[in-house]
Amino acid sequence: MSGAVEAKLAELGLTLPGVVPPLAAYQPAVRTGVYVYTAGQLPMVDGKLPVTGKVGAEVTADEAKDLARICALNALAAVKSVAGDLDRIARVVKVVGFVASATDFTGQPGVLNGASELLAAVLGDKGVHARSAVGVAVLPLDAPVEIELQVELEN
After folding, report:
1. Which of 67, 80, 94, 105 has the fewest beta carbons closer than 10 A?
2. What values do phi and psi take at 2, rounded to 5?
3. DSSP string spanning 90-129?
4. What value does the mean pLDDT of the chain take?
């Protein structure tokens, strides 16, 4: 099933990917009531990470911003897997983003703008959200970025 949100993705030249399979014992997304919570989504493309390493060292901030955009697409796929249709999104409530950072890198908010800007472009006002941008020492599989979403659905 695809609707206005997926049409907007297509207009932007993007395709909703398949749900990234879990790396451990968890679900990609869980729905409770009108809320969907995604697990942390890595920037997986066709089953692998396009880039690994720390942002500010092996990975540039611009590369990481693009990876955050991929994480957001993967998170939307996870939301769709339990909501059935992305057009049911009433709003993105919160984005939590983790950036594997070199010790002197402080640009985590700019990196996570990749996810935030994508959500706003695709969902309009419904994509505007609260956000946390956290620098960490390392992420699973040496991924540079990881994103999770909290989404409210329409009844």
Report:
1. 94
2. -135, 145
3. EEEEEEEEEEEB-TT---HHHHHHHHHHHHHHHHGGGG--
4. 96
Q: How far is CA 11 from the centre of its chain?
A: 19
> How far is the C-alpha of 48 from the C-alpha of 42, rounded, in Å?
9
Q: Which residues contact 152 (CB under 8 A, 6 or more apart)?
A: 34, 35, 89, 90, 91, 92, 93
- CA proximity to 75, closest of 1, 134, 150, 155: 150
Between CA 112 and CA 61 the distance in angstroms is: 10
pTM of the model: 0.96
pLDDT value at 1 more than 80:
no
DSSP state for residue 59 in the 8-state scheme: B
* Per-residue pLDDT at 2: 65
Contact between 150 and 91 under an 8 Å Cβ cutoff? The reply is: no
CB 123 within 8 A of CB 40: no
